[in-house]
Amino acid sequence: MSFKKTRLIPGGIPDEKDQKCFVRKIFRVFKKAEEENGEVIFSDAAHQVHNTDNGGCWQEKGGKNTKVLLSNSGRKRINIIGAINAKTHKPTTIVTEDNCDKDMMKQLLAQIRREYSESGRIHVFLDNAKYNRSKEVGEQARQLNIKLEFLPAYCPNLNLIERLWKFMKKTLRKNKYYDTFEKFKTAIFEFFKNIEQYKPHLETLLTPKFEIINNRN
After folding, report:
1. What are the φ and ψ backbone dihedral angles of 29, each rounded to 5 degrees?
2. Domain regions of the chain by residue span
3. I want to staple 178 with a disulfide (CB 3.0 to 4.6 A). Which of 115, 136, 184, 186 is the partner?
4. β-bridge mates for residue 126, sequence order
5. Given its phi and psi angles, is residue 62 left (phi above 0), alpha (psi -120 to 50 degrees) or beta?
6. Residue 192 in contact with residue 94, Cβ under 8 Å?
């Protein structure tokens, strides 16, 4: 036995068999999109709080010289509704202080279609958020020749973009302090504006290998 930190997994996650079945569906969609000159996109929303995300670092032994970090109130945040191309890793994002809703999702779908105007059908994998399931979003998707592919409930492990959000959080917020909200917001915009500088990391991180979570205790 060893003493180590527990790991959180989503409550209600489907069993391993169902997760594996959906992964097979993902690869069928990959193949279909390639045959149809289409695209495969993974979409989700992320919420970045204006506060320092403190993590570990090398420090001297003992508690006297423990490194301290400044923090903010954490009352303001940036909301990002975005998508990532499974093949090229190109992101499509809307960064806002407003809440994510069906209108913002419709804007994202329209932006995706503009960016891939020459492509055939676009398959977008996304979760079951209420605004994603709205009639207006579904109708807009049909008009834009976008097929919405809904992930099983409680399966962030099957959504490729979750890895991008985790990388962004680590890059922008881990042990980093922004004294003003404007500086924090600018850092997020600059992250996506200069996403090419992270290409080597993203190519390794965003491989089409999906973790199957064991939901047994």
Report:
1. -65, -40
2. 16-49+75-205
3. 184
4. 150
5. left
6. no
Distance between CA 8 and CA 12 in Å, rounded? 12
Phi, psi for 190 (deg, rounded to 5): -65, -35
CA distance 206 to 200: 10
Report whether 206 contacts 164 (CB < 8 A).
yes
Per-residue pLDDT of the chain (217 residues; tens, 9 = 90+): 876 667 666 777 888 999 999 999 999 999 999 999 999 999 999 998 887 766 666 667 766 666 766 777 667 889 999 999 999 999 999 999 898 999 999 999 999 999 999 999 999 999 999 999 999 999 999 999 999 999 999 999 999 999 999 999 999 988 888 999 999 999 999 999 999 999 999 999 999 999 998 866 4
Structure pTM? Answer: 0.88
Strands of the chain (E only): list them.
Answer: 39-49, 77-85, 91-96, 122-126, 146-150
Distance CA 111, CA 81 (A): 12
CB count in 10 Å sphere of residue 13: 20
| Helix 102-115 vs helix 135-143: crossing angle, to nearest 10 | 10
d(CA 123, CA 75): 36
Helix (H, G, I), strand (E, B) or coil at 124: strand
**What is the three-state SS of 67-96?**
CCCCCCCCCCEEEEEEEEECCCCCEEEEEE
Return the amino acid letter for 25: K
> Residue 59 and residue 65: Cα distance in Å, rounded?
8
